[in-house]
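During the reporting period the student researcher (J.K.) took over the structure-prediction task from the postdoctoral fellow and processed the backlog of single-chain submissions. One of the processed entries is reproduced below for the supervisory committee.
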Amino acid sequence: MKDLAGQVAVVTGGASGIGRGMAERFAAESMRVVVADVEEPPLHETVQAIRADGGEAIAVACDVASWSSVDALRDACTEAYGPADVLCNNAGVAGRGGVAEASLKTWEWCLGVNLWGVIHGCRAFLPDMIERGSGHVVNTASVLGHLCSPGVGPYNVSKYGVVALSETLHLEMQASGTGVGVTCLCPGLVSTNILDSERNRPERLLDDAGRGSLNVFSDDDESETLAAVREVYKHAMDPSVVGGMVLEAIVAGQFWLFTDGHFEGFIAERHRGIEAGGAPRSGRSIVETLLGRPLEQ
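J.K. obtained the following structure tokens:
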């Protein structure tokens, strides 16, 4: 896709973080943007900000874990602007816990948003793109779609799933000559509020104690480790920069999009291990990678 002016973009999880960065960048290129999010106050604030800057956008409340909600999102897009030309399946949450410890409700919540949200988006918007012979799908995975870190099992599984889905979709679109492009976005260190994604966990999926885990890394919301990780995120890449990268990837028809080089060595080491037929190595956790130092035992 070369000329994006006037085209229609749908961005889920568009009220904050990378989603907002994409929505604002698209609007600056004269695209018509459908901003979707489950959190309504920041959703409407984001659209108001885009309009104040001269962009064209509408807000649609949407829970991507629900098929009926995503189906309604497609209808709202079509009614307002016509079929989507660009779909960004971006909504995501951080589900923590080891495979043996994470509650089933945490698994359902994390996979529902991170993986089923992408499945629902593709199912809702792809048929129109294929019929028209053009379009582009951007699926937000993560560097943790390529690396496993202990303690964040649900998140790892969801993002590996998004990577697999994206690769499969790319191959299918290419094999059938549909004209639909695919980008697999794998963010590393980006300044988002994903550490606080529990704020949007549905009540029915709260753990038996009446709440979900307080954050990705620790059950103690005031922990020294969490404070250090928050500081890292505060100074990480601005989501608006990622929005620009995504725009360039769509224009170039680029499949892989990694936002930074912090994890390249770890990914390369993983690939070498696979080639050698060895078992996964016990390396530094994602927290240690973020902090640049080992955790104290």
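The committee noted the following: The longest strand covers residues 180-186.
J.K. will present the remaining backlog at the next meeting.
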